[in-house]
Amino acid sequence: MAAAVFTLGCFLFVVASASAQYFELKNVNQLNEAKKFQKIVIRNLQVPAGVTLDLTNLKDGTTVEFHGRITFGYKEWRGPLVKIGGKRLNIVGQNTARFDGEGQRYWKGGRNTKMLKPRFLEAIVDDSKITNLYFLNTPAMAFLCNWCHNTAISRITVDNKAAGDGRAGRAFNTDGISLGYVRNVQVRDSYVFNQDDCFVTGAGEDMLVENLTCEGGNGISVGSLGNRADVVKLTIRNCKVINSLTGINIKTEIGAVGLHRDVVIENIELKQIHQYGISIHGNEGNGFPSAQPTLFSLDRYTFRNIRGNMLGAGGVNVWIWLHPNSAKNWRWENVNVVGGKGTMFRPPLTCKGIPGNLRIPCAER
Ligand SMILES: *[C@@H]1O[C@H](CO)[C@@H](O)[C@H](O)[C@H]1NC(C)=O
């Protein structure tokens, strides 16, 4: 009787340890084998040029852990360099892990280059957690979550300091964190030093961005993808934008169809902004900034507790350039951005489309 119990105990022990096994990926040819496991460890991997580290079709509930330095061969292509897809995933970087894009190899072309540059990491996940991923020197966009649902993203670092603060214009299209067509997604406790939008969404529902620090780039953006892509229920709070071209950038494109509704932007600190402290314009695209704005509904927008300063007198503290029927149901409370005199704009910037009930000081000179 005692022996039987002992045998059973052993048997259970073996089963338990088998299910705790993980696969350590040594090269991308092992991906199919790795995807049979619930845990995949990726350490110091060199991904060949033009190949995506394809972590799609993972088993439900898979953990992927990144360790060490993950690098990518050089190829001019669209990427992504890493793709992640699945449900109930737990995607984790160890503290010293780096996705090293060696972006310097791509940045030399400047703004008008026709060079194709790979996007870095694209996740299409449901009910998942993504945390502690560190992107060094991204060739182009760093982190994208498109069609993600019920997903918590935290402790993302984008470090393109090697390209400087962007005024030299070296690392274009290096958007930091992008959300598109998501539902119920949070981005928290993250840091982006780049040369394009720090955070951007052009479509999605129920998004929270909290404790994001942005440096060197184009600030926090709410955009439009047009084609009836809407941004509904977005809160951006407790964030900082430092030494950036724009602080907060609400931009919808000329001819865009869609709407933004229930957007709250609060407790934001802007420091040393170069061009626009807060820009809200409906004419992104050719002819910016003077082109006429398209009618695009910005409904139930709240701007609250936004304070900051401009770097020198060249920029403007607040600029609003909207179709007269775009802004509806706005709150503008305790917004105080100072220092800009607009001297870099000829002709001087003017505003339009400010809701009549609000006293918003515009394009101060
Ligand atoms: C905010 O995010 C940073 C990472 O950029 C982190 O170090 C810090 O602990 C976070 N603050 C809070 C209050 O969670």
UniProtKB/TrEMBL annotation:
Entry superkingdom: Eukaryota
Keywords noted in UniProt: Cell wall biogenesis/degradation, Disulfide bond, Glycosidase, Hydrolase, Repeat, Signal
Signal peptide, first to last residue: 1-20
InterPro entries for this protein: Glyco_hydro_28 (IPR000743), Glycosyl_hydrlase_28 (IPR050434), PbH1 (IPR006626), Pectin_lyas_fold (IPR012334), Pectin_lyase_fold/virulence (IPR011050)
EC number per UniProt: 3.2.1.15
Family per similarity comment: Belongs to the glycosyl hydrolase 28 family.
Annotated protein name in UniProt: endo-polygalacturonase
Organism: Apolygus lucorum (Small green plant bug)
